[in-house]
Batch of 2 targets.
Target 1
Amino acid sequence: IVRTVLAPVCAAFKPQLILVSAGYDTAAGDPLGSMRVTPEGFARMTKLLMELAAKHCGGKIVLALEGGYDLKALSASVLATVETLMGKRTPDPSDTAVLHPALNLILTEVSVIHGDRWPGITSAIGVGDVGAEGLGFAIPVEMVQRITGDLIATGESPHAFLGITGATHFE
């Protein structure tokens, strides 16, 4: 997500500061997020964000703690983030974990919704290209529009359909 969505947006937008609402309810073990991000995963995301900040805004980055409801997972994840910010932890951002199979659909959906405003997202994700490098596969735009349109028309959330939580604006 950082590489395929945030990096192209940063390149086009040229921010003076990166401000992160750092929620940890996606941490493994959190009762609300239903995700499985490990402390190492948070460290990798932090490292990638630091690299974007270094490239686009002189290293200026602010992380504000905003959520996380399992104290053990929250403390371990925040520690990993802070250690990364301080240079005490150096995760390899190129090392990736196994990703949720719905990620490709979500990234394609992001490109459909926001690609006209941020063209770099579309090329990074590879919408419409079966076998887009680094993603395993990509879903044709028409299919994403049909699936999300059908779900929205019935009043259902596409995220509920995918069995995941998270906030995405659907128009």
Target 2
Amino acid sequence: YGADDESGVNNSATELNIEFVIRDNCVTLFGEGLAPVASPVYENVGIYVAVLSEEPGLSAGVTIDGNTIDVRSGIGIKVDDNYRGDTYEVGSVVIIRNNDITVGPSGTGIYIKGGEVCIIDNDVKGGEYGARFDYCEGIEFDGNTFKGNEYGIYALGTREAVIEGNAFLEN
């Protein structure tokens, strides 16, 4: 941040493009209070990403790809626009693809709070919500399988959602 690049030019935060990838991990949480998360995240979360942007133009490309997540009580993947009580705008598109997510009966496979998200080719099973979206804009679902959840997809205050080519089995 603010450091000189190879040409000697100083880059400000408004010019940064950051790529962040979480790929090919196995995450297993079998009890209450076992997730390694920072306050104020109170639930078990397999993968938690807060993509926050205070400055216009800051881009942080986040991809969550090829992970196996088993959470008996809590959330498989959470993308949040709130950190330590402050709400931010999610600063980029988040791509969640090719993940195998199993959650317990009161859990949520994928939980998105704000932002633009592409959810592609995931298997989500066993929870209260396969995928839940609160106040998002620009959600794309394609090629996912939601099986054995109470609700395949639940959206609250979400606009511009494209849902196509998904399988909803025994929800």
